[in-house]
Each structure stands twice: as C-alpha cells, then as structure tokens.
Amino acid sequence: MPASRALLSVSDKTGLIDFAKGLHGLGWELISTGGTARALREAGVPVRDVSEVTQFPEMLDGRVKTLHPVVHGGLLARRDLPDHMAAIAEHGIAPIDLVAVNLYPFRETASRKDVAPSEVIEQIDIGGPSMLRSAAKNFASVTTVVDPTDYAAVLAALSRGNDDLAFRRDLAAKVFEHTAAYDAAIATWFVSQRKESFPARICLPLEKAQTLRYGENPGQAAAFYVERPGAGLAGLQQKGGKELSFNNLLDLEGALLATEPFGDEVCCGIIKHTTPCGLATGATALEAYRKALACDPASAFGSVISFTSGVDDETAEALSSLFVECVVAPSFSSGALEILGRKKNLRILEGRARWPAGALDYKRVRGGLLVQQRPPAIIDDRTWKVVSKRHPTGEERRDLLFAWRAVASVKSNAIVLARDGATIGIGAGQMSRVDAAFLSVHKAITSGHATAGAALGSDAFFPFRDGVDQAAEAGVRAIVQPGGSVRDDEVVAAADGHDIAMVFTGVRLFRH
User: Fold this and answer.
1) Which entry of 13, 137, 174, 389 is annotated as an active-site residue?
2) Structure pTM?
C-alpha cells in the first residue's frame, strides 16, 4: 500500500490534471469520484474510484458516494493515537492524507435568471463539505485543498517533505471560511424563497476583493469585501489610474447613488465626502458636467464624478482641467481614455454597478448591524399632493422633480436649490433644517447663482416655518417636501403668505 493517499473530487477542474500528475509523481495513490475520476483517466493519470475503496456503489444519482466510514474514518483518525489507528486497521480502513475538494456551483446556479428551485437544490453539496470539514478538523495529519490556486504551493511543500503544521493549519482555516460562506449562500437563498427580508439570522458570505493601503485615515488597516466577485463596485472595470482607496470606494457608492434616480437620462454627479456638491442633467454628458460643476466648483476639487451616459473626447477634455480622484461612467470613448489616461493618478472606472433587486442596506454600529430595505431606485411624482393655494407651473414642477431626486443622495438634514435641471445650492448634513436652507442659499450665492425663482427640495418635513421664510427671502418660488409635521398648517400658511407653490410627497428621503 502506498505511504500516502489523496482523495480528489472537484467541480472546478482548473489545474486538476497538473496537480494530480504531481501527486502521482511523488508516489501518491489517487482516489476520486465521478467526473473527476473520468477526467484523470482521460489524461492518463492512474486513479481508483471511491466505490472501489468503500466497496459500496455510488447511488441516488450521486447524492451518496463519499458519505462512508471508509472515507471519513481515513480522514478523521488521529495518527498520534494508537487506539484510532488500531480501530481503522481492524475495519480495513487506510488513512487518507490529502483531500482536494471544491464544491458544487451553488451560488452560480442560484444566481441564474429563472432557474428552477429543484435545480438549485441539487447544487447543495453534502459530501464535499463533509470531507473538507473532516480533513480540516484533522489538519495535524491531513492536508486540505479547497482552492485550486493552492495546488502549486501544496505540491512544493510535499516535494520538500517538510511536516509543515502551520501550512496545513492555514489551509484548514481556508476550508472553514469557504464552507461557512457556502452555507451562508444556501441560507440566503432559502430566505429569498420565503421572500423574507429580515430572518432570525442574516448570513453574509463576503470574500476579500482587495487589501487597501489604509482606511479612512493612514494608520487604519482596511480591506474591501464583496458578496460576489465581479458584482457591484467590484464589477466596475478600472481603465486607468492608481489603486482604489477606502475613501474612493465610499465616494463611488455616493456618486452612483446620486445619479441612479435619473435612470437613463443624461446626468452627472460630482461627489465630495459621499454627498453631492453638484448634480445636473443635460442633453449631453458635457452639458450635464458643466452644469453640475457650476453648482460649487471650489468643492469639486478632489471629487469623484459619476455619469449615467458615456464619456466622449470633448467631455474628457473638460474633465482633465479639474483635479478628480475617480470618474465612473457606463462607457468611455477610446479618445476619452487616452485624454484621461494622461493623468496617471486618476482612477477611470467603466460600468453601472446597479444594486440587485431586493438588496438590503447595512449600517454598522458597535456590536452589530442595522439592516433596512434600500431606498427606491426610481423617484417620481406619483404620490405628490399640492397643498398650497398656488400650483407649480410646468417648469417649476420639472425643477421640483429634479430637486426631489437630487436631495435623496444628500446627507441629512438636506436642502437642495435647483433650476433648469441642475443644483445651484446644496445644504447638507446640518443639525437644523433652517441651517440647511441657509447653507444652500449661501453656497448658491457664493458660486454666483441667482436664487430668485429657484425650486427647493427638502428631504424631510419643515418642523417650523422658519425654513420656508428663509427660502422666500432668497426668492424660492416652489418647494417639495414630505409633509407630516404637526405644524404643517403653519408651514403651508407661510408658503401661501409668500406665494410659494408647495408640494407634499408623503415620502421621506433621510440619508444619515
């Protein structure tokens, strides 16, 4: 009997043949199952079927093949305990010294559109996780390989003949991380089948996509984790510039959040510290950019910019005159990539990175997470009710809808002044609404905008009339707000007193 035996059973056969040939060259006996054994034989690698070793046939369409004492006894027996070794010898069980297993593609199957639940269930691996867990528990004697990228390192360690306990421990830890994420994906799917947003337990199978240079500040270590490789921000294609930082990723999320409510309408959002300092629509990307930049050009320095449309050469030329950290758009012309690529530090990202349907929003707090439904991606005027004596004109209503969409991405307390499809003043993150109104007017005037005739959006109700009086003093002609204050009558009366058109949406758009 060979001194060492390996059990290979993989769905992802990347690197399998070279790994198996390497083991065979080192004198290992190979045991395998189904498709893996077939692939090895076709490549000329000697292999024994598990059913030959267990003397029990694979059955139930492959559901039962490795769930057998000959397999798990060979994995779990402690080599340092004579009683263990005597027990398996009594029953004719030989030790298994290495397991290379990767699991059925459950997540990939479950993510397919219109896939039948029965097909998803068949991708729940039972034998694979069981073998991995048995082997990883006994890492003192057994080597476990769950990631094909580890094949070369394992072969190198075996070739050296070193008893590298620390290496096997690291591989075992990787196994339990992998099986935990696998089980979390299964649990999440079952929750989705119940259409339940808030189950008793939330399992988040996150994978590290990137180690970051530091966090929000130097001295804070950080990393970027994703639910699924290639999805969300991790799905954006970086076309140039430095590696993304912690703060870049936060601002990219803020930038996409700002432009998302405008759908396929041409829109540009300029983001600083996760909140817009300029947001505008236009006939072209260049027009939208210029209008957004005009809102607060001083704050746009060092910003992250998002477009809902492609960036052409002309827009890229305009962008290149401003110091920008990141630009994200669905596409870039070849000329735009060349122009923007001259700025070696500018991160250029291509894609839309939409949130999947039903995605939840997580806020971290000490010792846990706050979990909520995501705010609606589509923001419209279907719930609006005119509460003032004067109704908004058609032009004012268009500005109000723009302001209402814009204010949704501004940190609370939030006030937005808008005209002609562009923000002209933004008051963000203030402790009182009247201060937010004052700041929006101040920012507008500082950037040279006339506030007379502007529309105003407020993310929550006005608790007092002072915010309306502040707006009237600046010449605001129309206001959109959720309503719902105990002083709504007083606030509406203030609007009527200033001949301001006021609309209640019945929807609050706080962004804490």
Assistant:
1) 137
2) 0.84
